[in-house]
Structure formats: structure tokens, C-alpha cells
Specification:
By secondary structure, the protein is of the alpha+beta class. Helices cover 36% and strands 32% of the residues. It has six helices and nine strands; from the N terminus they run H-E-H-E-E-H-E-E-E-H-H-E-E-H-E. It is elongated and about 60 Å long.
Length: 211
């Protein structure tokens, strides 16, 4: 269910588009990461800060790709560019590189002949840490804190990656990290995982690199 903050942000962004979007070029950044809207907003904010200092356009909100199971498979951010020139696309690609998105992401747009175009972007590798939420002793869940896990992992991954989002399912809580190297990230958290009680029986896996 959307929070009030998410609804207000979505409404604000749609109103902004209606005022500015005439005769502009629309480009979608497909992000190969299962981010919830609130996590995607953080990326939108990062792009907004960059694009406001450029002359190529503005942000037009984004969306979420849902799986049949109810989980999230990917998300996107929409841009309204002043034109679809190679120069504008190159500037947008540079912003994508600076913010950082996973491999398997792409810029997608239609040209003035309604022909579809897709340009691969993204260089980060993903690491999912699935915290077991049902099979550990009751006292572990009572004495341990998932927020401590996140804090410690982000600290251990400094310079190697960071957490982009989370997902709380019926049996596991999943933490999604992205960085230059999955192997480097997995190695960095291995010691903590082996020692902290809440991380027992957790599963660490590399996330898909393709759309």
C-alpha cells in the first residue's frame, strides 16, 4: 500500500510534467533492481540534483514492475529531455554512471518515427542477502535487530558498495546491495554473517545481470 508521502510525491511529479512536457522527448531508464517506490525515490532525488544543474530536461517520476507473486522485479525512472540528440543522451548516460545502476539496466525511447530504441547502461553488480525470518530460535528474533545488520553491512561495504533497497516477505527479509564487484562485497560481509545470530541460515546470492 502506498504511503501518504509516496502519493504526494507522485501527484507533485505528475503536475510538474503537465506544465513542462509539451513537445519534449521522453526517455525511460529501466533499472534492473527490485526497488520499492520509497527506495526508487532516493535514486530519483540523486538524478534530480544532477539534471537540475544541466540543460537537458527534467525528471518525470517513475514506476515499479511487479511479479505475479507480489514481489518486485525491477523499476524505472522517466526523463523528459529537451531533445533526443546524441549530446543529450550522452549527458544522461554520464548521470546514470555517476548515480550508479545495475548491469542489465537500459535507456529506452521512441524516435519521431515511433521506432523503439534501447541502449544498455549500468555497471554495478548486485548482491542479495536473504535473512531467514522463520527458522531461527525465537530468542534470536527477540534479541537481534535487522537495522543493526543493515548498519554493519553498509559499514563493511564502504568503498565497495551500498544498500539500495529491501523487501520483507512472508519468510525472509531481503537486503539488496550494489557495487563494482559481487565477489568483493560477499567477501567483505562474510565474517559478520558467520558471527551475528540473525544472519544464521541467511542466503547470499548474486543478482541477475540481465533484464
Amino acid at each position: 500500500m502506498s504511503t501518504l508521502k509516496e502519493k504526494l510525491l507522485s501527484l507533485f511529479r505528475k503536475e510538474a510534467v503537465s506544465e513542462k512536457a509539451n513537445d519534449s522527448a521522453f526517455v525511460t531508464l529501466y533499472i534492473n533492481a527490485p526497488l520499492q517506490p520509497v527506495d526508487r525515490f532516493e535514486l530519483e532525488d540523486a538524478f534530480t540534483e544532477l539534471i537540475e544543474n544541466s540543460d537537458i530536461g527534467f525528471i518525470d517520476g517513475g514506476g515499479t514492475y511487479m511479479e505475479e507473486s507480489g514481489g518486485i522485479s525491477a523499476c524505472d525512472i522517466n526523463f523528459v529531455l529537451n531533445d533526443i540528440s546524441e549530446e543529450s543522451l550522452a549527458k544522461l548516460e554520464s548521470m546514470v554512471r555517476e548515480v550508479g545502476v545495475p548491469k542489465g539496466s537500459s535507456l529506452q525511447w521512441d524516435d519521431d518515427k515511433d521506432e523503439k530504441h534501447k541502449r544498455p547502461v549500468g555497471h554495478l553488480e548486485g548482491m542479495a542477502v536473504h535473512i531467514n525470518g522463520t527458522e531461527l530460535p525465537k530468542e534470536v528474533y527477540e534479541s537481534c535487530d535487522i537495522n543493526y545488520v543493515i548498519e554493519q553491512m553498509n559499514s563493511l561495504l564502504e568503498g565497495k558498495g551500498r544498500m539500495y533497497g529491501t523487501w520483507e516477505g512472508p519468510e525472509n527479509t531481503s537486503l539488496y546491495f550494489y557495487g563494482e564487484s559481487y565477489d568483493a562485497m560477499a567477501a567483505a560481509i562474510q565474517g559478520f554473517i558467520s558471527e551475528y545470530p540473525l544472519c544464521q541460515k541467511c542466503v547470499v546470492e548474486k543478482m541477475r545481470d540481465e533484464e
